[in-house]
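To: structure desk
From: M.T.
Subject: fold request, one chain
Message: Could you run this one when you get a chance? Sequence is below, nothing fancy, just the single chain.
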Amino acid sequence: MKRYTIRFAYDGAGDLEPQTRKFEGVSPGHAQKKCRREYPGCKILETLCDARLNPGCGTFGMISYPTVSTADVEPIKVPKTEQAAFGFLNECVSYRPQPTQ
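Reply: Done. Structure tokens follow.
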């Protein structure tokens, strides 16, 4: 798990200063989901993560991630399943004869 720094605002009018909190998650979307669960109604402004930019040199920096969409998507309707009975089923079934002793 990585630790993500998320900046978010509560109101759309801009009266309050944006807040910054750290959340752990396996992905930026997972951390943003935790933020929305803890602070319902917030608007995520920025998601950052500390990262090693050049593995050989040890250069560190911040990676910025886009905000995950929260638009509701209506699921595809699954057709109703039906069981069909065929009249010739008994003709297709075979039985193993019982061994005689």
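Reply (cont.): Strands lie at 2-9, 19-25, 43-54, 59-65. Let me know if you need anything else for the meeting.
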